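hiii so um. not sure if this is the right channel but i have a protein structure encoded as tokens and i wanna go backwards to a sequence. like what aa goes where. can anyone help
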């Protein structure tokens, strides 16, 4: 996630860029949805090793972070989060393996290259038109609307939500482990 947030953005709310109220910087505030999606698509993370810095903005949390992650499957990956890259780019998720690669910009599949597959006739490839890479107000609220609608449905029908507390907590736990790794300068097992 290589977003751009100006100093004015952080100055516009006393909670922005704070550890106590915002919970963290680029990764916790803007990057958590990407971490959640990554966990859903790539599986559980076994360990993390991270470095973070506040390079550009006058805030108490990171505006730039990189982490190497090891998945329980044995795969390796990289998580990057920044709000200091001008002009800002859509969040990109690359999943690569010996049998193919899939690339998402925000939530849109933009590449689908699967070896020995029967094409991608059932996959819709399209650019991501709206995103908050440069402008926070451009972030779609569709996901929030769907989640609230699901919550209402569950309350009315006495059902369990499509995405429960444990699902959301997984992304938070990974981010907290990444922050701990950056603070302690060592690999952290989850």
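sure thing!! here u go:
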């Amino acid at each position: 996630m290589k977003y751009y947030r100006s100093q004015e953005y952080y100055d516009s709310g006393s909670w922005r860029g704070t550890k106590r109220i915002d919970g963290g910087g680029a990764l916790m505030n803007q990057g958590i949805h990407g971490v959640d999606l990554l966990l859903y698509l790539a599986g559980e993370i076994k360990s993390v090793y991270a470095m973070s810095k506040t390079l550009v903005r006058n805030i108490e949390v990171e505006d730039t972070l990189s982490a190497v992650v090891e998945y329980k499957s044995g795969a390796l990956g990289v998580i990057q989060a920044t709000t200091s890259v001008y002009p800002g780019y859509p969040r990109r998720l690359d999943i690569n393996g010996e049998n193919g690669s899939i690339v998402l910009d925000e939530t849109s599949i933009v590449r689908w290259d699967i070896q020995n597959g029967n094409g991608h006739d059932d996959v819709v490839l399209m650019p991501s038109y709206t995103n908050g890479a440069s402008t926070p107000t451009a972030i779609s609220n569709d996901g929030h609307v769907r989640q609230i609608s699901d919550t209402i449905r569950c309350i009315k029908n006495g059902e369990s939500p499509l995405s429960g507390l444990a699902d959301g907590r997984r992304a938070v736990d990974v981010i907290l482990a990444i922050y701990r790794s950056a603070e302690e300068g060592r690999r952290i097992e989850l």
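oh and Helices lie at 7-11, 26-30, 32-42, 142-157, 165-184.
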